[in-house]
Specification:
Elements (H helix, E strand, L loop, with lengths): L11 H6 L14 H8 L3 H7 L1 E4 L6 E2 L2 E2 L7 H9 L5 E3 L8 H17 L7 E4 L17 H6 L3 H17 L4 E2 L23 H16 L12 E5 L18 H8 L1 H8 L4 E4 L3 E2 L2 E2 L4 H11 L5 E3 L4 H7 L7 H11 L4 E2 L5 H11 L5 H17 L19 H14 L1 E5 L12 E4 L6 H5 L21 H8 L4 E3 L2 E2 L4 E2 L1 H8 L4 E7 L17 H11 L5 E6 L15 E4 L7 H9 L55 E8 L3 E2 L4 E10 L5 E11 L10 E10 L4 E9 L5 E2 L5 E2 L3 E7 L2 E7 L1
Parallel strand pairs: 1-4, 1-12, 4-5, 5-6, 7-8, 8-11, 14-15, 14-18, 18-19, 19-20, 22-30
Antiparallel strand pairs: 2-3, 9-10, 13-20, 16-17, 21-23, 23-26, 24-25, 24-29, 27-28, 29-30
Length: about 750
């Protein structure tokens, strides 16, 4: 496939010239039961299957202004089912619902769909991205960036499996998760929804998440259809603003942004959501080369492709590549869209029916999408069992599930600084606790928590402790609390200083306002001045300062980092983040998280760990180095680990061979601890300028006090490949270097 056009702006007439209207896609699944259903469907029914509406459309009240308590409007539901034959409903009416209310919602809709209309069950979808955040009492895990910080795919799979269970317990079989975009633009508002900046780490977490959501049998009543988000290049807008243009050469698209999706397809992910923005001048929702030639023909994806929110409408309204809604629908459908998240009206439905009846879109194209939609519905068991057995989910919000969320939070929290081993704290220490995240569940959960932006406190899970409440639970000493500063303004600073004078140590919990998507756009990465000043003023007391970060993305902290003796990054750890942090601060648990991204020191120096040699020291003038605040993969422990005896089995390898590596790791302390052994490989000379190093393997292990373990890795030579000038993966003969914690060994590939 030639996608050289990614490097240039191409007229849309050229784009659509490569999309023959009658061409049959061989990657559409074939099933006799489904063919029999399609054969009986009218054009209106087929278009209905391709239509996804927001719950607001069939609820009492106006869109975004529903009557409380929420109710289904039966007349609107009748219209949706018996006139428009909608195939899918999504979302929640503004805020989280109880399981009982979800039972009412799902049962009402599904009974209508199966007994009237065309009798085909709807597929309900939800954004359960760190647990089932729109069901009251559900188990909330760390956001994806925190999950990545565990460097423990087993925990990610476990969390996804629990989320799938609680989704199904709410009657919902389709989860718009995981996010497979890479965190390589720190300004981007959805940074926290990713598995970090590295391809290899993200691929391991991707595989674990898909397995957890779908398992071997997605029709199992405890599994859901996963949805890969957001195909392709969404996370790299050049401005950092959400849904703004990205300019990514095809070689980079293939080497960095495509592999997570390839992995998810290998894991049989059933659905995919499309990038809301544009890549190299072409809106993704109208991009035949991406959605059909690449996704279907090259990668062999057979599942359902759904738009993101209003993104067909935006082809006309925002992108200005379509003159009206009708043309936008034609572009998107012929590019490869199967289902339109319209979502607040029936404009897609009406336009597509007209396009088919006028002959501008062939009915065979509708058949193609219906096959995929019905195939997904069959895969998750909807065609046989559309009505959930709500009473069977007895483990919902169980202690077992809560402990799993706590374990994930514990392994995610990353110790970034610990001068003079000030941590762990004595339980009888007198502490002053300050800062906006200290007593806020909303800040430590982030967006997509009970409401879209996660800022409304009235829907928070009852009985879950904040950081402050968890500290008081675990402490035997006196804990004083003064806010000192909220997110943007000083509050009671004088009182904080007064209380701080008598404290043994001061804990300042810094944070960022919960936000995502466009509301989360920011102008720079600098921590708000009020929070910086809180640290500055309290540091003047001469007491040990401990900082915690609960940020959506890496905020610049270089001005205040020297003032702190200890720093912990909690990311967005979920409901059990306060409990996890308390256990770590008081030494009940040894921290083991590692950064899944490079933490920048300056807003204008956003270099990744896998940077190029040319991004380093200027040989002539001596400036320009890699100088992040903390490096990718960094994270401290209360234990001290040493590495020795690095061995590479052979000095030279054929392309078909596997590199066998071993290294000894010793816990040289009296404290049991977990360590992540990270294997990096450098391609020393290549036809495409090579990165300084690339992560090629990792293992997380528990080492008892004074214990030594020999850790082994087997890395296929093929894993050292890069995308060459011809846009194909290649391993070039030459010299390579293994690096593990400062130890290095060279070898040759023939």
């Amino acid at each position: 496939m030639n996608l050289k056009r990614f490097l240039y702006l191409v007229p849309f007439c050229t784009l659509f010239a490569c999309a023959p209207l009658e061409e049959k896609n061989t990657n559409t699944p074939y099933d006799e039961e489904i063919e029999a259903i399609i054969a009986k469907m009218s054009i209106e029914e087929k278009v209905g299957q391709m239509t996804q509406i927001n719950l607001d459309v069939i609820s009492v009240g106006e869109i975004f202004n529903l009557v409380e308590p929420h109710q289904i409007d039966l007349e609107k539901l009748d219209l949706a089912i018996n006139k428009y034959y909608v195939g899918s409903v999504l979302n929640v009416g503004g805020h989280t619902y109880s399981r009982e209310h979800w039972e009412y919602v799902i049962t009402t809709i599904q009974e209508k769909a199966t007994k009237e209309g065309n009798g085909i069950p709807i597929i309900y979808g939800i954004d359960a991205i760190h647990g089932v955040n729109y069901t009251q009492g559900a188990t909330l895990f760390p956001q994806q960036i925190g999950q990545a910080a565990t460097w423990n795919p087993t925990l990610v799979e476990q969390g996804a499996a629990i989320t799938a269970y609680e989704c199904r317990a709410s009657g919902i079989p389709w989860n718009f998760s995981p996010v497979l975009d890479l965190a390589r633009q720190p300004l981007w508002s959805r940074f926290f929804e990713t598995y970090g900046e590295d391809v290899y780490l993200a691929k391991q977490m991707t595989a674990a998440a898909i397995q957890g959501y779908q398992g071997e049998d997605p029709s199992h009543p405890e599994k859901v259809a996963a949805c890969m988000k957001h195909f392709l290049g969404y996370s790299m807008p050049i401005t950092g603003k959400d849904r703004t243009p990205a300019w990514i050469p095809e070689r980079q698209l293939r080497e960095y942004f495509l592999p997570t999706f390839e992995e998810a397809i290998r894991q049989n992910a059933l659905t995919l959501m499309v990038n809301s923005g544009e890549v190299n001048g072409i809106p993704t929702h109208a991009d035949y080369d991406l959605l059909t030639t690449l996704l279907r023909d090259e990668l062999g994806f057979k599942g359902l492709v759904v738009t993101d929110w209003e993104d067909i409408i935006k082809l006309h309204r925002d992108h200005k590549v379509a003159k009206d809604m009708r043309e936008a629908v034609k572009m998107a459908v012929m590019a490869g869209i199967d289902m339109s998240m319209t979502p607040n009206d029936y404009s897609f439905n009406e336009a597509l029916i007209d396009l088919v009846k006028s002959g501008e879109v062939p009915e065979s194209r509708l058949d193609e999408s219906c096959r995929r939609i019905l195939w997904v519905k069959k895969q998750i068991g909807l065609l046989k069992n559309p009505m959930p057995n709500f009473a069977s989910y007895t483990k919902f919000a169980s202690k077992e599930f809560q402990n799993a969320a706590l374990e994930t939070a514990l392994e995610s929290i990353t110790l970034l600084k610990n001068d003079n081993d000030i941590l762990p704290l004595a339980k009888n220490a007198k502490l002053l606790v300050c800062g906006p995240a200290a007593n806020s569940l909303n800040i430590i959960n982030g967006a997509w928590t009970h409401t879209w932006q996660g800022v409304d406190t009235m829907w928070n899970t009852q009985g879950v402790p904040t950081i402050l409440e968890a500290l008081r639970k675990h402490s035997t000493g006196q804990i004083e609390y003064v806010l000192g500063s909220d997110l943007f303004d000083e509050v009671n600073m004088t009182q904080a200083i007064s209380k701080g004078r008598s404290a043994d140590a001061i804990l300042i919990c810094l944070g960022e306002i919960p936000s995502t998507e466009k509301p989360g756009d920011i102008e720079d990465l600098n921590l708000p001045v009020a929070q910086q000043n809180l640290v500055r003023e309290l540091s003047k007391l001469g007491k040990p300062i401990i900082l915690t970060f609960s940020f959506n993305r890496p905020m610049i902290v270089r001005q205040i980092e020297p003032l702190a003796q200890a720093i912990l990054h909690t990311y967005l750890p979920g409901d059990y983040g306060g409990e996890a942090l308390a256990q770590i601060l008081f030494g009940e648990v040894n921290p083991s998280g590692k950064l899944p991204f490079t933490y920048p020191r300056h807003t204008g120096s956003l270099m990744f760990y896998d940077h190029k040699h040319t991004e380093l020291l200027d040989k002539d003038f001596g400036y320009g180095t890699f100088n992040p605040q903390w490096e990718f993969g960094f994270g401290m422990s209360y234990s001290k680990f040493s590495y020795s005896n690095l061995k590479v089995e052979k000095s030279a390898y054929e392309q078909s061979e596997v590199i066998k590596i071993s290294v000894d790791v010793k816990n040289e302390s009296i404290v049991d601890g977990k360590e992540v052994v990270q294997v990096y490989v450098s391609d020393l000379v290549a036809s495409i300028t090579p990165s300084i190093k690339r992560l090629r393997g990792f293992k997380k292990l528990m080492l008892k006090a004074n214990e030594t373990q020999t850790v082994t890795f087997e890395i296929p030579v093929s894993d050292l490949a890069f995308v060459g000038k011809d846009l194909k993966w290649i391993v070039e003969p030459g010299e390579f270097e293994i690096q593990i914690s400062g130890l290095k060994k060279k070898f040759e590939v023939k």
